Amino acid sequence: MQRVVVCSNCQAKNRVDEARLANSEAKCGQCGQKLDLKPAVITDRTFEREVLATQGTPVLVDCWAPWCGPCRIIGPVMDQLAAESQGQYRIAKLNVDDNPQVASRFQISSIPTMLIFKDGQLIDRLVGVQPKQAIAERLQVASRFAA
Ligand SMILES: [Zn+2]
Q1: Which of 15, 38, 127, 135 to pair with 75, CA 20 to 30 A apart?
Q2: Does position 106 have pLDDT exceeding 80, yes or no?
């Protein structure tokens, strides 16, 4: 099965094989960015490059931990939002236990916390379990935000 995936970096439409997508092997034919329908997993080390360096599209970072019950409710919502993004935004996940630098830099005191960045700035923050529609609306607002 093939499906069309819009690149979050250059907005090019790519026709890709679903099996390759599932294995995170698909790359954009135009710019080479990885095409992924799953949230990107980021760390203290990759945060700068994967989140702050992203221009034009908002990046939502779901800050979570394996022991956190409510985070397990948000997880599938993040998967759905990532699959439906159409290149309008990016969804990323950060394990706060393994990545204390980002967690302390943005004063994450309870999880799940969702941070929304645009053009290298933190512009919105959602704390606790939220309905998918509410998160999607905040992403829409973020995509119109101009610094
Ligand atoms: Zn691209």
Answers
A1: 15
A2: yes
